Amino acid sequence: MVAADSGRPATFGWGPRFLHSTGQYHKGGPATGVFLQITERTEVDVQIPGRPFTFGQLIAAQAAGDASVLAAHGRPVVTLTLTDPQAEVLSLFEAAQ
Q: Which of 56, 65, 87, 93 has the largest count of CB atoms under 10 Å?
């Protein structure tokens, strides 16, 4: 939808997996991208055994680090953090149309 509507290539990746695939290309490739990062804030989280942080904190830190690297390389990046993902993601899809 984004690619067809804009006439530009678009990629999509689920995090944090994308940090080691398309993310590497976007951070080191040509400076032609515009980036929208959608994250989620949830009240349900899981402690990582033997670590002083949770899975939610780890994922948030990875997303923040990725956005920081993109920005440091001059790539425009916006991060939207959803607090009610089920309702808000529908609003995002409607707004994109």
A: 56
